[in-house]
Amino acid sequence: MKKRGATTYLLQMKGGISSSTIRRLKAGQSVSTNSLDALCKVLECGLEEIVEYLPEESGQ
Fold this sequence. Notes:
Number of strands: 0
Mean pLDDT: 86
Distance between the termini: 37 Å
Largest sheet: none
Radius of gyration: 13 Å
């Protein structure tokens, strides 16, 4: 968002992304693929620019 100069308002108005989804994104929680698609369209970027895979630590 910083790189593109996007605000949460822009994501909500242009992308149709709800405030609860934005809150989940900022907290690093899971979101739907539809939300990720909308985010990529609004920010004009690829998925690899907004998503990072972090495997969970296992108790083994």
